[in-house]
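PT: before anyone asks, these are the final sequences, not the draft ones from last week. 660 residues across everything. Please model them as a single complex and drop the result in this thread when it's through.
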Amino acid sequence: MSLLTYRSAVARGIAQEMRRDDRVVFLGEDVAAAGGVFKTTVGLLEEFGPLRVRDTPISEQAILGAAMGAAMTGLRPIAEIMYSDFFAVCWDLVANEISKSRYMSDGQVSFPLVIQCGNGAGLRFGAQHSQSIENWAMSIPGLKVVAPATPRDVVGLMAAAVRDEDPVVFFNHKALYASKEEVPDGEIVDELGKAVVRREGGDATIVALAAMVPRSLAAADLLAEEHGIQATVVDVRSLVPLDTQTILSEVEKTGTLFTVEENPRLCGWGAEIVSIVTEERWDALDGAPIRITTPHIPLPSADSLEDLALPTPRRIADTVAKALKG
Amino acid sequence: MTEVQSSSEISEELGISLYRSMSTARQFEKRAYDLFMQNLVKGTTHLGIGQEAVASGVAEAMADGDYTFVTYRGHNHLVARGTPLAPLMAELLGRDNGLMHGKGGSMHLIDAERGVLGSYAIIGAQLVIANGAAWSAQYRGSGQVTVCFFGDGATNIGAFHEALNFAVIWNLPVVFVCENNLYMEYTKTDTITAVEHPAADRAAGYNLPRIVIDGNDVEEVYLTAKKAVDLARAGGGPSIIEAVTYRHGGHSRADPAKYRDPAEVAEWLEKDPLPAYRARLIARGVDPSVFEKIDAEIGVEVDAATEEAKAGEWPKPERLYTNVWADGGAEWRN
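LR: through. Structure below.
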């Protein structure tokens, strides 16, 4: 075991797969010589050389186009879009090309590629460098969508994503880069489409993703301390494929569902989960499922305003306590 | 390019092959048009009638295993790369025996077996994707060349500029071919473009030579493409070729093209690449009966393809849920 930061896990996950398979190549803005603007890809250029780890111009369409064309002709590229907000300038490649071409050709071509990006708020970057857009990706048929909450998952889910035959949009969370945990040495390989129960409790089921997982765990501690409420926290990890069975089973145990989402309210991923749970486990619910989200606003820059916007442990705990105790 | 120069480099056999390729594309698309008028081809079709010399000339310069990326006006290019006519026609008819089992349609043709890695209906996307195939070939050391066709309208979209810069800085084995048919959909391209030649006049900005050719002269297309393909294969990097041509019909089936001056249309019909090339080969001594025979053979082939396509069944309902994912299915949850 060794202590690994989420930041270092990004490079470790990519390196693990590049060592194993020389079809894996990595490209993006500032990823090679600079080691990434968040220092998440330090050491990759030195280990794998300039043919496999490539800096690109600020040309997001060219980056994703290169990844797509390479994937359909025998490589397994990992492309980086520096901030998930920048998907807006290359969304054609994601929404029209990479996601649809297998279906349109009825299986003539495959797209074993990963698009990783820095997603989410917490660093006071303002409305155009802070968004959580995992729900954009989730809404497009043909894309797998992953958002790890822990350093171990960054490595293991990246391995699963690289080895998958389908395109995976991989949302690293910028506010988690400094977080750390003990992880096993050696190869870590996870599986897409498996949620993990991070905390077990009999009273409330909280379903969260990425940076909302540690916040939900902190909320669960508050609930226990202040109200004696024991909460289960489910880390969804993978929105597509979605592990509905784990979620349904954890909802059955408590009769409650709280989703904690960083994305803005409308059409957030939690709405889909609430819809599934209410359709399929109506009788198991003791009350209406409740979504705890960022309001439907662009994100502000100031510390105090950004802190108000995102779900906090306090807001999560208070919402759950109020629902359970009235 | 004069006829004397061309004829010294073009054997009679090659000339006849170029003619056959163009004539096949022409007859195929005329039939596609007829079937559209009979409401057997649905949706829309974008015909390249009048532009065949570009697809045929470039294809002749390519090798087996090379990659082709085309636009939604891509029937000609698939024909030129050897896609069998029956599955191609059946795809336009939305039948299960179609190239993509009816799931792609006219604008989204892919024939991976022949390296045609897509017809792209979002203007300009194929240029950046073609770079990826070229990068892959370069990385694997396979010697494959990627050819990417696009229209004059694509030169005003960002992806065009991103793609050219990217191809040059990575020295990719890719040949970009602009089919400049003078109109961006319904609007004359020179009225909405900063330069006269929308592709070639931008080449200097990417440190590439300015190449403008007569896109209705199939030999000039072939010889120019051959140089560019050979250069790419030898590691000499990308090229961009602007082939000036003209579509005889409108942008798509919905377009009667009334915005065009009849005199301009008449002038370009005079420059129709097929009769022009037939006349040139006859002047070089090929017996006119050779072309009658070729055209008749292609007619039989197109008839047979049409019948085979029309006999195809509608796609089975299960097709709706196939191949969203690599496991063949469409499941997104457990």
